[in-house]
Write a structure and sequence with these properties.
Blueprint (H helix, E strand, L loop, with lengths): L7 E10 L26 H11 L6 E5 L10 H17 L3 E5 L5 H8 L4 E3 L22 H13 L4 E7 L5 H18 L2 E8 L18 H11 L5 E3 L8 H10 L3 E5 L14 H8 L5 E4 L5 H4 L3
Helix pairs in contact: 1-2, 4-5, 5-6, 6-7
The protein binds iron/sulfur cluster.
Iron/sulfur cluster binds next to loops.
Length: 305
């Protein structure tokens, strides 16, 4: 990518629209979901009013982040159409949509490609043993199903964001195996633009009773990930989940180069407010880092869009 200068850290000025918080999965670390039918869906009219307020506010990315309606539910089609319509609306108003709506059929993914500049899905961890613990009631977290999503995105040539959730009961070897699988798929399809390394950070809604992932361990994981992943995949860390400024800088020294979407609220980790741009600059600048906004589609993919 063109931003190859060593002292540049990127972020995406973003706003998150949530079509629905309802999700038929019940991951025990989740701080996002409600039960099916328990929260109203966002309407296109409400979204339009939000987006109108965002115009001229330097927001570029609209992250469409949704809980999942079961693939066999009679409401699945309406759910998908709402997501499609929100993306089309954002595009028509000059924003760049990036959708992460969980597991999609190939046909759904193919349709969403037309109204998104990139898409995303966390691989989280490939080890099947989590199906007996945090993912016991989360059919969408079957490792082979998630790997297939990354493969379909590759076949469809969709610029893609994925990542690992760290500290949900996996081992260190599990990290390296998950990273190696991402690397293999990228070498086949060249479509992964960034890999998020997200430390488990307990929130007020979750039932999973575990310590937060030790942020002091993160630089070590980043350094090894940098060795495993191809050089054209950027490593992203969420700065609101790495509270200590010195460790945030250590993460950059270890090879992280992106801070993800920065907006008013982290919908996945609502207990951890985003550090806003000015605050981040104050941390990064004295250490010699330049914070630069980026688009939700990385430069190497823009010629294909
Ligand atoms: S983590 Fe995602 S898939 Fe799991 S329950 Fe929450 S919203 Fe659903």
């Amino acid at each position: 990518m063109s931003l190859s200068r060593q002292n540049i850290v990127t972020y995406s000025p973003a706003y998150t629209l949530v079509p629905t918080y309802e999700c038929f999965n019940r991951c025990t670390y989740c701080n996002f979901r409600t039960d099916p039918g328990k929260s109203p869906w966002l309407t296109v009219a409400e979204a339009k009013s939000i987006l109108q307020q965002l115009q001229n506010q330097n927001v570029c990315e609209i992250l469409i982040l949704s809980g999942e309606v079961h693939p066999l539910s009679s409401r699945r089609e309406a759910w998908f159409q709402l997501i499609y319509d929100l993306c089309a609306l954002a595009l028509s108003m000059g924003f760049l949509p990036h959708t992460n709506a969980g597991i999609l059929s190939f046909a759904e993914m193919e349709k969403l490609k037309n109204v998104n500049v990139s898409m995303g899905l966390m691989l989280e961890q490939l080890t099947p043993k989590l199906l007996n613990t945090v993912h016991r009631h989360a059919p969408s977290k079957l490792p082979e199903v998630r790997l297939q999503q990354l493969q379909w995105a590759g076949e469809l040539q969709i610029p893609f964001t994925t990542g690992l959730l760290l500290g949900i009961g996996e081992t260190e070897d599990d990290w390296w195996q998950t990273l190696a699988a991402i690397s293999d798929l990228h070498q086949r399809y060249h479509h992964i633009q960034e890999v998020i390394l997200q430390p488990h950070s307990p929130g007020s809604q979750q039932t999973f009773d575990a310590e937060p992932f030790n942020p002091h361990q993160l630089p070590e994981v980043i350094a090894k990930a940098r060795e495993i992943l191809p050089a054209d995949i950027t490593i992203q860390i969420p700065p609101n989940l790495v509270k200590d400024e010195n460790w945030l800088l250590a993460c950059l020294d270890a090879g992280a180069r992106d801070l993800g979407g920065i907006g008013p609220k982290d919908e996945v980790n609502p207990d951890y407010p985003h550090l806003q741009e000015q605050r981040l600059r104050k941390i990064l600048h004295p250490a010699g880092w330049e914070l630069v906004p980026r688009l939700p589609v990385y430069p190497q993919f823009q010629r294909n869009r």
